[in-house]
Amino acid sequence: xxxxxxxxxxxxxxxxxxxxxxxxxxxxxxxxxxxxxxxxxxxxxxxxxxxxxxxxxxxxxxxxxxxxxxxxxxxxxxxxxxxxxxxxxxxxxxxxxxxxxxxxxxxxxxxxxxxxxxxxxxxxxxxxxxxxxxxxxxxxxxxxxxxxxxxxxxxxxxxxxxxxxxxxxxxxxxxxxxxxxxxxxxxxxxxxxxxxxxxxxxxxxxxx
Length: 208
What we know:
Blueprint: H1 3-9, H2 16-28, H3 37-51, E1 55-59, H4 65-72, E2 79-84, H5 90-98, E3 106-110, H6 113-116, E4 124-129, H7 136-145, E5 147-156, H8 173-187, E6 191-196, E7 202-207
Parallel strand pairs: 1-2, 1-4, 2-3, 4-5
Antiparallel strand pairs: 5-7, 6-7
């Protein structure tokens, strides 16, 4: 048994619906590894249960795994708004979200969150950033404008397969986007932050 196997064996089991979604994502999409998966999915649910947000914003739905995981932790009257900019994902993702037990808590929107999320006129308690790595800093600034004081941001992939410390990737635009974001957050006195070395890196950010 590997350490990863041990961790999963001692973590809340992955719901069968999410396992089937994870498997379908890996079979039918090119970038299946982008789905959050068992460990991160259970962490997202737990964080939602701890923070107890009424309104959650997700930037980057992909196949819906993380949205469903977070919605599992929401109160019955809470809502999650998730944006996916790639309209080619809609035919795959929408049936999985609408077929889930938490469909009534999720608003799945095809569009650019940087433009469309502020138009909702809502103030969010929690945001999960998992979209285009090249626009992470811009997305962060947008989120801060619609996040309540004391609210939380979760930013995914902030270690980017270790590329952030590998000079072979210095000219890679996505790596540059993550590095710029990480440096920017570390120097931003409006927030408190910690990077968890979980999976591909997950940064927890609290707006002061």
